[in-house]
Amino acid sequence: MTIHTLTIAGSDSGGGAGIQADLKTFSALGTYGMSVITALTAQNTQGVHGVQVVSPEFIAAQCDAVFSDIRVDAVKMGMLGNAATIAVVAERLAHYQPPIIVLDTVMIAKGGHALLDPAAVNALREQLLPMASIITPNLPEAAALLACAEAQSEAQMRQQGRELIAAGAQAVLMKGGHLGGESCPDWLITPNDEVCFPAARIATRHTHGTGCTLSAALTALRPQCADWVETVAKAKAWLLLAISEAERLEVGHGIGPVHH
Ligand code: PLP
Question: Domain Pyridoxamine kinase/Phosphomethylpyrimidine kinase: where (predicted)?
């Protein structure tokens, strides 16, 4: 049976991140992808040039259209934009209860543009984190969620992962790309386990959409795997390939996308 995946996220007109990255990833990993669009961005590889949010009513209408007709095996959330969107998405997901919920805690684009109102971080932590099967913060996002300083070491990453579990997440994938240095270790923290996924840093500046692509891959692969350890291992292997192939795409003049 084909796996059905849904992304609740923002559109990237440049095709490298957001909804577009998610749908390409869903297809590449053999699933049937669907989308609830929370915001439009006018965006290319050089940056985010404008954002238009979708009304809460129309976000709810998209959720209802999908869930009332189509089986959903796994959902991911990406760019949510503001507290009103978080509230309606939390309410609709509580109503439909999809079996797997991946929360990519998107806050700021690589170019510096805010993709989440800073005043909405509390709403994200209080309303969505407790219903997530896994959350995938990078180090600045974990620090914002915990209102603490950014982790500078793997020991601090693990500690913050445990604090996010205490805050209600069922699993946390702490992404270590911001640590700097030669390697980008990610740590998977669950209530019973802490597993490191080491990775060498790939020499490319074309990393636009890596976070979106990883969380979409987790969403597509989790229904096909026994647990999060197997899922993260497979998703990371696929993402490394996508980053390695990024140079070949020659998309745009800025930070190009990974190859989905
Ligand atoms: N645009 C949208 C709609 C996104 O959802 C995201 C990331 O989640 C980005 C842009 C940021 O992409 P990046 O920071 O990889 O350039």
Answer: 12-259
Angstrom distance (rounded) from CA 11 to CA 78: 10
3-class secondary structure, 120: helix
Flag whether 169 is in a domain: yes
CATH of the domain at 149: 3.40.1190.20
Alpha-carbon torsion angle 215, 216, 221, 227, nearest 10: 20
256 assigned to some structural domain: no
Q: In the annotation, is 219 catalytic?
A: no
Ligand 1 atom closest to residue 79's alpha carbon, by position in its atom list: 5
The conformation of residue 116, written as its DSSP 8-state character, comes to B
Whole-model pTM over 0.90: yes
Continuous H helices in 125-174: 139-146, 154-166
- How much distance in Å is there from the Cα of 257 to the middle of ligand 1? 10
